[in-house]
Amino acid sequence: MRIGIFFGGPSREREISFAGGKTAFEYLDKSLFEPVPVFVDSFGRFILLEKQLMYSSEIREFYPAKNIQKAGFKTYIESYPELASEPVDNETGTLITPEQFKDYFDFAFLAMHGPDCEDGAIQGLLEWYKIPYSGPGLMGSAVGIDKILQNDMIALVNGQEKKSWTLTYKNWVPEEYALLFQVLKKHLGLPLVIKAPHQGSSIGVAIVKDDSLEAFISAVNQCFFRIELEAETWKSLDTAEKQAWGQKVANLDEGIGFPVVLSGKTIYHPADLLPELDNHFVAGHTIAVLSSSNSEDQVLVEEFTTGQEFSCGCIQFDDGKPLALPPSEVIKMVQVFDFNAKYKPGASRKRIPVDTSLENNQAIQKVIAEVFEQLGINVCVRIDGFLTEEGRIILHDPNTIPGMSPTSFIFKQMAEIGLNVTHALTYLVRQSIRERIRSGKNTWALRTLLDELDQRINANNAIAKPVEYIVFGATDEEYIDARLRYGRLNAEGKIQPVPVLKGRDGQFYKLTNPLMFKEYVADVEVLLSSERHPLLTETSEKADKLTRFYAGNVSFNVTAYSDLAALQVTA
Q1: Displacement of CA 409 from its chain's centroid (Å)
Q2: Are 503 and 528 in contact (CB under 8 A)?
Q3: In 430-451, which positions are buried (b, 16+ CB within 10 angstroms) versus exposed (e)?
Q4: Which uninterrupted H or E stretch holds 369?
Q5: CB atoms < 10 A from the CB of 404, how many?
Q6: Helices 476-492 and 421-438, packing angle to 10 deg
Q7: DSSP strand E in 361-513: where?
Q8: Euclidean distance between CA atoms 207 and 258, whole angstroms
Q9: CA neighbours closer than 13 Å in the CB half-sphere of residue 88
Q10: Which residues contact 468 (CB under 8 A, 6 or more apart)?
């Protein structure tokens, strides 16, 4: 089956999308699927990407072409609006239209995030052209993108009480900043959590911890994707500092991105923005207000919730019933879990399950499954939340296309029921086809596609594959290398890789799949001498039929050997 891997798109999360696209490209089961990379640019064009470009470090490395970049800035294609009607460089790929999709792939694997990508827009386009796609359908996607609507709907399901306030852009008036801050402090208290309601990857999230009007104004502007720049500040910068400031605005993980609007004028490139600001202040203005052309029209202000932070995935059985995965506790090493904290090494750690009672973990799974069903989500979701000291479970931010690096929450949690990344991707493809059938569109063609895939999966499971042992020492470097090799061999689909750790005690340990998804080798060694958590055992037993279909026979027992020869290496 040809799998079009859609990544990129116009949203601020396009680089996270690129990382997810790489995962699908590298880890899809090559004995079942042929990956076809489809880069979606900021203009919404679809490009069959040259495969070697999938190994680029970021989108700006290959698109737009390096010879187009000007004035020393690294920008995205939207900074060059004149290119929207120009052909794509042959070294980049080939432009295709939705009418041509069926000529190149049978299924669209969506690794895109944010507005237009995760809100039902691309899903609706694919349904119109009869292309099955991964993840939830139109309704679940529409709910999953709107944090304000989510809060109301989740409360209807589980009765949770979380105080919040919706602030519209028209009510964000400079003369009333102080009054608004006083009102919000009175109703919600401090700290305040400010969120851009249609963003993900913790973009557009700020926390106002102190009783500071300046911090409050900065946080709200950040979530409106708006900059208030004072003349005095701008005039104090030298040329190099202005250049650095312009680049920061262009960076999607820390700036508001281009195009920007200044005094009603749309500006596409930082090289054009800097002289515009000079002229603006020369004309006597004391402040410049910059707004992203894709700014939010409202922001969500919430009370600050304290407790153990967790993230919990939910998938489905073949009959559509939900299976909540083991929740992961997020142990933050920083105060604000923003974009950088989420994706930069060392800013947080993950622990499965949450460090609480079995009953509390079960309660988290129960409410996650209920919300999954009642919000009309299917195939897969990741929902974040807090477990308070009083034992209350407060949920927020259902994520219908979770981040998909090989060590993302969803893959770590699916590993605990015996599915490696390749198995998990096969699940996402197969169950998505199953759910598209339920929509009553193109039904018999999709049933045929599903039957053919099921036959291939069953045939693969029936093949006795030769074993290859991946032996590595107890260092993080060797563990990372072993994980990469383990993933790539699983994706090739030709052999059965078996990881073997030589522990610090001199013993060799044949590891189970979950132990190849920890953050550090020290975590693995601790678990070697520990009883498996009862929640993990219980969830694995619930998932047994699903796991055996995708992964064959799975063992959760670690086997220890006194020497490597005892493993009888045959690969």
Answers
A1: 9
A2: yes
A3: bbbbbbbbeeeeeeeebeebbe
A4: helix 358-374
A5: 26
A6: 50
A7: 380-387, 393-399, 467-473, 496-502, 508-510
A8: 25
A9: 20
A10: 489, 495, 496, 497, 498, 571
Q: Which residue has the tokens 């399950």?
A: 353
DSSP letter for 430, please: H
β pairing state of 260-262 and 265-267: antiparallel
- H, E, C per residue of 259-289: CEEECCEEECCHHHHHHHHHHHHHCCCCEEE
DSSP state of 52: G
Burial of 286 (0-12, 13-18, 19+ CB in 10 A): exposed
Q: Long-range CB contacts (< 8 A, 24+ apart) of 554-560?
A: 554/418, 554/513, 555/512, 556/418, 556/512, 556/514, 556/532, 557/512, 558/509, 558/510, 558/511, 558/512, 558/515, 558/528, 559/509, 559/510, 560/507, 560/508, 560/509, 560/510, 560/528
Query: How are beta strands 2-8 and 107-110 bridged, if at all?
Result: parallel
Contact residues for 86 (Cβ-Cβ < 8 A; gap 6+):
none
d(CA 259, CA 78): 7
∠88-255-288 over CA atoms, to 5°? 110
Residues in the chain: 571
Residue pair 474/526 in contact (Cβ under 8 Å)? The answer is: no
The Cα 414–Cα 406 span in angstroms is: 11
Contacts of 454 (CB under 8 A, 6+ apart): 430
Query: Residues 157, 385: contact at Cβ < 8 Å?
Result: no
Asked whether the whole model's pTM tops 0.85, one would answer yes
Instruction: Please tell me the distance from the alpha carbon of residue 208 to that of residue 55, in angstroms, as a whole number.
Output: 39
Task: Judge if the upstream peptide bond of residue 191 is cis by omega within 30 degrees of 0.
Answer: yes
Query: What confidence tens digit (pLDDT) does each residue in 87-139 have?
Result: 998 899 999 999 999 999 999 999 999 888 899 999 999 999 999 999 999 99
C-beta separation of 126 from 120 below 8 A:
no
Strand locations in 336-439 (E)? 348-351, 380-387, 393-399
Contacts of 15 (CB under 8 A, 6+ apart): 58, 59, 252, 253
Question: pLDDT (tens digit, 9 = 90+) per residue, 429-485?
Answer: 999 999 999 999 999 999 999 999 999 999 999 999 999 999 999 999 999 999 999
Task: Please report the pLDDT score of residue 570 as a whole number.
Answer: 39
Instruction: Report the half-sphere exposure of 508 (CA within 13 A, side-chain side).
Output: 17
Q: Shortest CA distance to 49 belongs to which of 104, 117, 118?
A: 104
Long-range pairs for 515-523: beta carbons < 8 A, 24 or more residues apart: 515/558, 516/415, 516/420, 516/482, 516/483, 516/486, 517/407, 517/411, 517/412, 517/415, 517/416, 517/483, 519/349, 519/350, 519/407, 520/476, 520/479, 521/474, 521/475, 521/476, 521/478, 521/479
Q: Is 533 helix (H, G, I), strand (E, B) or coil?
A: coil
DSSP-assigned beta bridge partners for residue 95: 47
Q: Convert 184-244 into a string of H (helix), E (strand) and C (coil).
A: HHHHHCCCEEEECCCCCCCCCEEEECCCCHHHHHHHHHHHHCEEEEEHHHHHCCCHHHHHH
Nearest to 136 by CA among 395, 376, 321, 320: 376
